[in-house]
Design a protein that fits this description.
By secondary structure, the chain is of the alpha/beta class. It has two domains: 160 residues, Rossmann fold (3-Layer(aba) Sandwich); 66 residues, no CATH class. It contains nine helices and ten strands. It has a six-stranded mixed beta sheet, with helices on both faces. It has a four-stranded antiparallel beta sheet with strand order 2-1-4-5, covered by helices on one side. A hairpin with a 2-residue loop joins strand 9 and strand 10. The radius of gyration is 17 Å and the shape is globular. The model has no long low-confidence stretch (mean pLDDT 91).
């Protein structure tokens, strides 16, 4: 479904990603792991063509994403749930969600999608008229995810969804991730620092170090790897 082949990305003259390749197949959850500063954010910006790549290619169902404008990816069924939520804090929950459906023209479809996401997050339904900036951190993350789901996406990139949240909220969000794949026939690329939790819900994983893919393989194998345990789990 998503295929990243030997991409090289730069900020000015400074190279951040070096011949990075990864693949995400239909209905998988694939995790991209790495500490801060290893290139995870640059990888996301490259996939969404926010930061154009210098060489290599990025394709989705055979379509070159690196030739598309960032907003055009929504028309292909690709969405990003960004790190830090990036809500419009002065707007209501409902209005934030509706912004996620900007690429849908049919009002009935928007209403149907809204009903679906509020079913996934009943707490948001209770707070639909509430100003988004007054929500708790966990509720804001739910709102950010729900906004990303308003196009019923084929492919979802979650960027650090557990960041700053209580464990019980994180568990709810990761369980919802599995529900989304089942109900919406979606595929997920997960960017996450919580290595143990990410690998537990994933099919496969890649480890990014200094802009290079250092390790890759089935999630369970990575979880049992001594290198992963020492580097990320403190074991």
């Amino acid at each position: 479904m998503l295929k990243v082949e030997s991409i090289n990305s730069f900020y000015g003259d400074v190279q951040i990603l070096f011949d990075l390749s990864l693949e995400v197949n239909k209905n998988e959850i694939v995790t991209l792991l790495g500490s801060n500063g290893m290139g995870k954010t640059t990888a996301i910006k490259s996939i969404f063509n926010i930061l154009p790549i210098r060489s290599g290619s990025i394709t989705f169902d055979g379509i070159r994403l690196d030739k598309k404008k960032p907003h055009e990816l929504a028309l292909l069924g690709i969405t990003l749930v960004p790190e830090g939520r990036k809500l419009f804090p002065a707007m209501s929950v409902k209005d934030n969600l509706l912004l996620g459906a900007f690429s849908i023209k049919e009002k009935k479809q928007i209403e149907k999608n809204l009903e679906w996401v509020l079913g996934l997050f009943p707490r948001l339904k209770e707070r639909a008229r509430q100003i988004a900036g007054t929500l708790s951190g966990g509720e804001q993350q739910m709102c950010a995810i729900a906004r990303g789901l308003m196009i019923r996406p084929k492919f979802i990139v979650f960027d650090e969804p557990s960041l700053g949240l209580a464990p019980i909220i994180v568990d709810q969000i990761f369980q919802t991730m599995k529900t989304i794949i089942k109900e919406n026939d979606s595929t997920v690329l997960l960017i996450e620092q919580n290595v143990h939790l990410a690998l537990e819900v994933s099919d496969r994983g890649y480890v990014l170090e200094n802009g290079h893919i250092a390790m890759s393989g089935p999630a369970q194998e990575l979880l049992e790897s001594e290198e992963i345990q020492k580097a990320y789990l403190g074991l």
